[in-house]
Amino acid sequence: MQGSANLNVMIKAARKAGRSLSKDFREVENLLVSRKGASDFVTRADTAAEQIIRDELMAARPTYGFLGEETGEIEGQDPTRRWIVDPLDGTTNFLHGLPHWAVSIALEHKGQIVAGVVYDPTKDEMFFAEKGAGAWMNESRIRASVRNRIDESLYATGIPFATRGELPATLKDLANLMPACAGVRRFGAASLDLAYVAAGRYDGFWERSLQVWDMAAGIVIAKEAGAIVEGIAPHSNPLDTNDILVANEPQFEKFSKFFRV
Predict the structure, then answer these.
(1) Is the pTM of this model over 0.90?
(2) d(CA 147, CA 249)
(3) CATH topology of domain 5-142
(4) What is the mean pLDDT of residues 57-64?
């Protein structure tokens, strides 16, 4: 697929950050067996990856705003356009040597996400989409599944860690859904969960208390693949509510009922 100039800039930045993180990931695997530990190293790797992305994006579009997980908000001269970046989604996986993490870059225009890139360097899978142009993984068009039966469907979610207050609600969600479906996966990277719904690998995804950078790129990819995306409250915008509910069109209404009780 021939993308726009903006999309090509995003893909280039994601690949460049992915190469840096892949090198660091190999080092993390060595640090895991040392007394030194890997946590501080991963924090530096995360920050360095965001700097790479920021440098690439701002060099190409210096007037755009920037919102990054590590950098925070940087106002641009153009108030209508903003990059939204998570340089390392799945940090805990990365820290533990698990090869399931991604670089996520989105472009927002007048409050709408118009382009998104989610890159998994360990599998060399580049998921991307632009509004109105469909969703892609590498050179192949991707589409959400068409499964209609809940009992044949596979879903994904995120489970809160430590003392985060969303755990009771998530456990209630799981108790409602799991007896009715084929399975629920918790792989620890929301951007990839959304990309996997777009690719038909999952039939749906939900999660509570996400940040904008966790979801932005994946939202446009899932929508362009034919999935329905809302907040957990009916007809709400996930970027406003910080929670998300996604499923293929044939079963979205049935799927949503497990969480809207």
Answers:
(1) yes
(2) 9
(3) Fructose-1,6-Bisphosphatase; Chain A, domain 1 (3.30.540)
(4) 97
Longest dimension (CA), the chain: 51
Name the β-bridge partners of 64: 78
**Which H or E run contains 260?**
none
Type of residue numbered 133? A
Q: How many residues make up the chain in this entry?
A: 261
Please state the rounded mean pLDDT for residues 50-54: 97
Q: CA–CA separation, 245 vs 230, rounded Å?
A: 5
- What residue has token string 């991307």? 128
The span from the CA of 187 to the CA of 196, in Å, is: 11
- pLDDT recorded at residue 32: 62
Q: Convert the pLDDT of each residue in 87-118 to its tens digit.
A: 999 999 998 889 999 999 999 999 999 999 99
The ranges assigned to domains in the chain are: 5-142, 150-256
Question: In the numeric block, which tokens belong to residue 6?
Answer: 């903006």
Which CATH code is given to the segment(s) 150-256? 3.40.190.80
